[in-house]
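Subject — a protein and its fold

Tokens — whole-number codes for backbone shape
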Amino acid sequence: MSVGTGAYASHGLKKNKKSETYAKVFETGSRYQLIHSAMLVATPAICRSGGGKYAIASRVAGACFASGIAMFSGSCYAVGLMEDRSYGKLAPVGGFALIGGWISLALLRR
């Protein structure tokens, strides 16, 4: 899905001075979705090496990555499509969730 949104950002969004900023926001959402989707898929494999004791790390990180992708990238997509920054209110919460996913992998995986 993120490859499709990235292609849409590059070719489908109108390009003029005003909407160029919104296109960059849309592209940022697509990039973060791609990176964190890969981490969401890799999280069980990363946590599997320790056996059952890392199952909680896998669940916490997965929940943080999934909710962060939905809130952060979804907000970026809404801002880019609607060209209105008021749709981006969930982006900071989603960003913190993504950070929480990385921290949970780092701390709970130890």
Q: What stands out?
A: The chain has a mean pLDDT of 83. The radius of gyration is 16 Å.
